[in-house]
Amino acid sequence: MQPIRFVRFLAINYYLCLMLHKTRGIVLGTAAYNDKYSLAPVYTEKFGKVTYIISSRKAKTSRCPRSLFHCLAVLEMEVEHRNLRDFQRIKEARAAIPLNSVLSDPVKSAISIFLAELTGKIIVETQENRLLFEFLLRSVEIFELTETSYSNFHLAFMVGLSRFLGIYPDGADYSDGAYFDLREGIFSEQKPAHPDFLNPPESKSLYNLLRINYENMSAFRFSRHERKSLIESILNYYRLHLANFREIKSVEILHEVFG
After folding, report:
1. Angle of helix 200-209 versus helix 224-241 axis, rounded to 10
2. Average pLDDT of the chain to the nearest whole number
3. What string of H, E and C letters represents the secondary structure of the chain?
């Protein structure tokens, strides 16, 4: 290839790598990168999970204001996307769905922080998954619009998310007095020979939880102890089935809110 053609070839490929794309995204948190910039993991409709670098300044004239990047914010974005780059850049962003109640209600805010952290640590895929994106988007929309009886929302979310991870617990063999085997994801009449299982009362609560969804979540009544136990059980289940699943720090805030 002649030198001029080769340079032109490189220039075209570089331009294509930096093409701007329009995509929706759900913010999964922010973290300081340095004095000037922050990092924001976002689950996008087109690219899966992407970490964007954003300015930490609160300039009113910014086309990508820092204030947009709160937990579970749904954004319409115009972004650069280059496969070999660790952090992508956002040219412009705006709120796609105003989350007024999520931001103003302290309980909803605590739940949103927990769900964003959980999702960010569970989902690692960096390719398009429209079904998963639609589940997350629908979840945020329902959460914002639910005015009362949302104390079980995070439980319904955690159970629903497991379907998209391929680890949804199998409740087919449940019977009174059964044990739930956390390693195998099944109910058994026999006590497992290993320590990773739920006792019969805990197993019954989990079995009941498998019937929960956003439409019927208000019909389920769990005590403070049961709710805390269910959260810990599901997190342990995730921990056993997902590689490199890290500690969820915000779970303590959630326990305090519902205490």
Report:
1. 80
2. 90
3. CCHHHHHHHHHHHHHHHCCEEEEEEEECCCEECCCCEEEEEEEECCCEEEEEEEECCCCCCCCCCHHHCCCCCEEEEEEECCCCCCCEEEEEEEEEECCHHHHHCHHHHHHHHHHHHHHHHHCCCCCCCHHHHHHHHHHHHHHHHCCCCCCCHHHHHHHHHHHHHCCCCECCCCCCCCEEECCCCEEECCCCCCCCEECHHHHHHHHHHCCCCCCCHHHCCCCHHHHHHHHHHHHHHHHHHCCCCCCCCCHHHHHHHCC
**pLDDT tens, position by position, 5-18:** 654 544 445 544 55
129 and 255 fall within a common domain: yes
- How many alpha carbons fall within 13 Å on the CB side of residue 33? 17
Q: Which of 185, 227, 187 is nearest to 204 (CA)?
A: 187
Domain range for residue 184? 98-259
Determine contact, residues 177/200, Cβ cutoff 8 Å.
yes
pTM over 0.85, yes/no: yes
What pLDDT score does 57 carry? 74
Domain count, the chain: 2
> Considering Cα of 179, then 181, then 182, then 186, what sign does the dihedral take?
negative
Identify whether residues 254 and 205 lie together within a single domain.
yes
pLDDT confidence of residue 82: 85
Residues 74 and 137 in one domain: no
* Domain edge (last residue) among 39, 68, 94: 94
